[in-house]
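look at this record:
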Amino acid sequence: MVELQLKTPLRFDQFTQPVCITSNDNTAISAGKYQWFTGWGYTTNVQLGNPTKQLQQAQLYIDPSSVCSNFYKDTFWTDSQICAGTPQKTTCNYDLGGPLVQQNSAGVWYQYGISAYRAKNCDNAGVFTRVSWYCSWIYQYTGIRCA
């Protein structure tokens, strides 16, 4: 997580929009649900591929935490991370830092995760930092409360 202080105010338009963060994300990111992910990462073989020149998006399956716990062993923390993706559709090189988001029934977008790390060959579920885990930190440093 990082806090940025901008020199000039951000101007919202059709390409630049805010995203909401909630402290109550249990139903939205439970196993079996899908979230949207966007990134600039490889779309083909990790050894032969190149980053894409066009922003990509995909719906990623939210896996049970045990999938990442078993694959990543001691580096996956159930409380503060989200396990998402399949061997066929996952994060890859140049995707790290990308958002995991979902639009609610009212049309409001919420960010639930930030791509943190992935399998060496991009052939397993990826790990995302769980944004809600940092709500108290966000409030402490920005004065902004999670919804």
Observations:
- The mean pLDDT is 90.
- The domain at 34-142 is CATH 2.40.10.10 (Thrombin, subunit H).
